[in-house]
């Protein structure tokens, strides 16, 4: 059985959505993110933009093969905001994504059940508005060889339709290629068997 080597995410942030419940306003945002620094950047910006709001609740998931996530209630009752938002990330099966729901309190308490439903709905609405795309899980390899072997290396790259990420073509050449995960072992073996050619994997930050 072939191991799954694709994942779903978003490339661009969709337009924010607005959900209203008993005079409270819930603004839903979604952003593509690859690290916690980018998460903090989006949160800081939204707190400035919505400085009069009461809560900035969020959830994010990072990674493709090794997953990390966080859900934050930001002062709402435990598990009434962050986890319902994260539940929608799981429901839509997306990763490398941050969803923030900004709440303006309308003077009427919603209760825990009402809050769960409101935060879930705002997260669902923004994900429905987002353009969700499928990407392949890729492995990057660095190939090191002398210039005299250029034709051999390039022939394999062209024949196997491999993507070149960057290259340094001098007396000692280095080419970084991107290989779909399901084909990675085969490609590694092809280059690894060749005399005077070194191939080694490069760890990708968002996987």
UniProtKB/TrEMBL annotation:
Pfam families: Impact_N. Coiled coil: none annotated. It comes from the Bacteria. Residues 22-127 form the Impact N-terminal domain. SUPFAM superfamilies: Ribosomal protein S5 domain 2-like (SSF54211). Belongs to the IMPACT family. This is IMPACT family protein. It comes from Mariniflexile ostreae.
């Amino acid at each position: 059985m072939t191991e799954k080597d694709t994942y779903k995410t978003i490339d661009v942030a969709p337009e924010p959505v607005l959900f209203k419940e008993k005079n409270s306003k819930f603004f839903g945002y979604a952003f593509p993110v690859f690290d916690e620094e980018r998460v903090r950047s989006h949160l800081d910006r939204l707190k400035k933009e919505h400085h009069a709001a009461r809560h900035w609740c969020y959830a994010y998931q990072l990674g493709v093969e090794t997953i990390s996530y966080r859900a934050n209630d930001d002062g709402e009752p435990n598990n009434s905001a962050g986890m319902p938002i994260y539940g929608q990330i799981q429901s839509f099966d997306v990763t490398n994504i941050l969803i923030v729901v900004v709440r303006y309190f309308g003077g009427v308490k919603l209760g825990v059940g009402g809050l769960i439903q409101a935060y879930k709905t705002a997260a669902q609405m923004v994900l429905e508005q987002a353009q969700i795309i499928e990407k392949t899980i890729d492995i990057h390899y660095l190939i090191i060889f002398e210039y005299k072997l250029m034709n051999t290396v390039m022939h394999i790259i062209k024949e196997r339709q491999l993507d070149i990420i960057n290259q340094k073509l001098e007396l000692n050449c280095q080419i970084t290629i991107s290989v779909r995960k399901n084909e990675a072992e085969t490609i590694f073996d092809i280059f690894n068997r060749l005399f005077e050619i070194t191939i080694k994997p490069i760890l990708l930050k968002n996987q």
